[in-house]
Amino acid sequence: MRSAYDEVADTYADHFRSTEPELPVELAVVGHFASLLPGERRVLDAGCGAGRMMPVLAGHGCRVEGVDLSPEMVRRSHLDHAEYPAQVASIADLPFPDGCFDGVFSWYSTIHAPDAELPSALREMRRVLRPGGFLLVAFQCGEGVRDVSESYRRRGHDIVLHRWNRTSDDMVHALATAGLEVVARLERAAAGHEREAQAVVIARA
């Protein structure tokens, strides 16, 4: 996955510069997430990609920083959103002490984690949350594994990239197992170019 996103980083960042893929209802859920946060609203964008959602969080009063597995994505985050710190790291091995964030924002960053790896990623994001902090997870709904390489191949990138779809109930169960209490969930039908329904779940540590 790291090499695939390194390959497509500039194509992705140039195509999705801000919130072009999101519907208003999803952006409203992001605002709701921010409104729930205690303390200083220090938020980790876990899997920040090229950083396009960090200004959205900052606009809601969050003090945001990011991590991403892809060095090239982090390079574009530094280039396009230099005001927000970002570093290379895995969401399953975060370089932060326990309980240091008021919120963790996982915007489609768990979708490439196989089912066997999802629990450890959620536990790690839970670890860096303060008691009473919140985790937001967004993902495509459904079941099974999808090959999502084709859209990049059409743009000249010879990569292999798979996505793990999950139902909302599956994610709620996984969050509960990681020690988080679900407080809000959104599921909407596919829109526009999308093939699957989309979901957002918010849970409290």
TrEMBL record:
Ranges of residues in domain Methyltransferase type:
44-136
GO BP annotation list: methylation
Keyword entries, A-Z: Methyltransferase, Transferase
- Leader sequence range is none
Q: Which InterPro entries match?
A: Methyltransf_11, Methyltransf_Superfamily, SAM-dependent_MTases_sf
Q: Which domain of life is it from?
A: Bacteria
Q: Which Pfam families match?
A: Methyltransf_11 (PF08241)
Q: Which GO terms describe its molecular function?
A: methyltransferase activity
Q: PANTHER family recorded for this chain?
A: METHYLTRANSFERASE
Protein name per the record: Class I SAM-dependent methyltransferase
Organism of derivation: Pedococcus ginsenosidimutans
